[in-house]
Amino acid sequence: MTRTSRPVHWLRRFRRNDDGAATVEFVILFPLVLALMLGAIDLGITMVRQVMLDRAVDITVRDVRLGKIGANGSARMSDLICANSMLLPDCIGNISVEMMPVNTSDFTGLDGPFTCIDSEQEITPAVTFNPGMGGAAQELMLLRICVVAEPFLRVTGLFSGLDINPEGQLVLTSRSAFVNEPR
After folding, report:
1. What pTM did the predictor assign?
2. Which of 20, 26, 45, 110 has its CA 20 to 30 A from that of 1?
3. What region holds the TadE-like domain (predicted)?
């Protein structure tokens, strides 16, 4: 074999060789499959957290309707929501509860954006907690809850349209409406 035909022969042999072909496919596809799997786990845990928050709000609204929480009960309401929910780490420090009566003639109430805890500034926002006058009239009440939680694996933002604040935390919100019964 001549000197110039050796590299050509070697290149032909290299091109026909299929050793390691499965390894190349594995290296390309494994990170994608792993990311999808971890994203599904993360999104599943986030959805369980959202369902548990909604359940806790429903249980707490029942207590409000039964008269167990008074006019100055925002902190008590936060405690009850956190006690009834699971999988929300540091719920007490990351929850904001807002409640106001709705004017049924024009349905004005909580029109603005949700007010959530900003852990970067370590300031608890001032929210309105007004359970209404009660009295003879039955008032329609709107309740909004915002909980900021750390994602389980920090992959959720890649696969979903969930709200994520600038600190990279998930923003879980819940709404409820009920009629304030006269006492």
Report:
1. 0.74
2. 20
3. 20-62
Angle at 157 between CA 35 and CA 161, to 5 degrees: 120
For residue 147, the cross-strand partners are 95, 172
**pLDDT recorded at residue 123:** 47
Total residues belonging to the chain: 183
Cα–Cα distance between 76 and 80 in angstroms, integer? Answer: 6
Q: Are 123 and 145 in contact (CB under 8 A)?
A: no
Of 51, 71, 84, 48, give the one whose Cα is nearest residue 129: 71
The identity of residue 180, as a single letter, is N
Ordered mean pLDDT values, 10 residues apiece, the chain (183 residues): 69 74 83 87 88 94 76 73 87 85 72 68 52 58 86 66 78 85 62
Q: How far, in whole angstroms, is CA 143 from its chain's centroid?
A: 17
Residue whose pair of structure tokens reads 């909580």 in the numeric block? 110
Only one residue has tokens 């994520």, namely: 164
Hey, how many other C-beta atoms are within 10 angstroms of the C-beta on 63?
A: 16
* Of 145, 177, 25, 157, residue with least CA distance to 79: 145
First to last CA, the chain: 105
**pLDDT attached to residue 139:** 76
